[in-house]
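PROTEIN DESIGN WORKSHEET
SECTION A - STRUCTURE
LENGTH: 273
TOKENS:
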């Protein structure tokens, strides 16, 4: 997987515009898992400096400003930071890559948030590098919240023309079929992009069982993302020196500490340094 490829996708004018339109500053939580994780983190990190990683156009900004007035936003896509600055001209925002955050000092933040499965845009090996940087920047009592796609969830293995997601039981629905076909007729260029990107990426899928690298349906299958499992994400977090406080599924339920598998679409992890 090329991390530069994913950065180029996010930095395209078309994707940046989509974030402004559909993931702007007032859209709230992405799912119940994110909501539960941020509530848990806020009780510990309230009033401490916050680093919002992969901020996009600022969906999480209003949420995190409720936790603290000491707020810094970063994204590795310049177009995203431009969009953020238009929405929040008075807030600190920087173009920065989560793998290398040398612009910030050790122990500077009490809360670091990397939402929307942003950590999945880097390679399997680089995920540990990202968490090492987060560990360096967090204060001793600091909290980390990040989300990550599940290899056993419905986003893994999607195809451009599917009527149901891979892990969901298929039952034919005329309404679903008409809706799916209608969406494609309204955006024929998007269909062409999706098929082209998916076809190009499918030969480069790397499925290791406990984790995988594969295309994601978002943005016309242009993104090539990392997918984890319960055991893999536990190893990642503890291997980086963090203690897991809780793992939330996207429906807000807690993944039990002894769980060996989950069908959640993604996980949101709350961890302490």
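SECTION B - SEQUENCE
RESIDUE ASSIGNMENT:
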């Amino acid at each position: 997987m090329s991390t530069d490829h994913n950065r180029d996708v996010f930095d395209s004018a078309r994707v940046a515009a989509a974030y402004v339109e559909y993931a702007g500053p007032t859209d709230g939580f992405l799912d119940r898992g994110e909501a539960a994780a941020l509530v848990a983190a806020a009780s510990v990190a309230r009033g401490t400096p916050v680093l919002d990683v992969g901020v996009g156009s600022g969906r999480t900004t209003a949420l995190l400003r409720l936790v603290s007035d000491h707020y810094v936003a970063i994204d590795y896509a310049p177009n995203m930071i431009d969009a953020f600055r238009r929405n929040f001209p008075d807030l600190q925002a920087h173009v920065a890559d989560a793998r290398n955050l040398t612009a910030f000092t050790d122990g500077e933040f009490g809360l670091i948030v990397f939402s929307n499965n942003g950590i999945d845009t880097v390679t399997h090996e680089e995920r540990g590098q990202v968490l090492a940087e987060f560990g360096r920047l967090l204060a001793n009592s600091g909290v980390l919240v990040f989300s990550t796609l599940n290899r056993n969830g419905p986003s893994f293995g999607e195809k451009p023309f599917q009527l149901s997601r891979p892990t969901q039981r298929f039952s034919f629905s005329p309404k679903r079929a008409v809706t799916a076909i209608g969406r494609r007729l309204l955006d024929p260029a998007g269909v062409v992009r999706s098929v082209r990107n998916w076809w190009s990426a499918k030969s480069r899928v790397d499925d290791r069982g406990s984790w995988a690298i594969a295309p994601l349906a978002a943005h016309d299958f242009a993104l090539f993302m990392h997918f984890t499992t319960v055991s893999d994400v536990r190893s990642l977090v503890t291997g980086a020196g963090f203690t897991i406080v809780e793992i939330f599924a996207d429906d807000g339920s807690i993944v039990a500490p002894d769980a060996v598998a989950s069908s959640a679409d993604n996980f949101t992890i709350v961890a302490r340094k």
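SECTION C - NOTES
The beta strands are 50-53, 71-75, 92-95, 109-114, 138-149, 206-207, 212-216, 223-227, 243-249, 266-272.
The longest strand covers residues 138-149.
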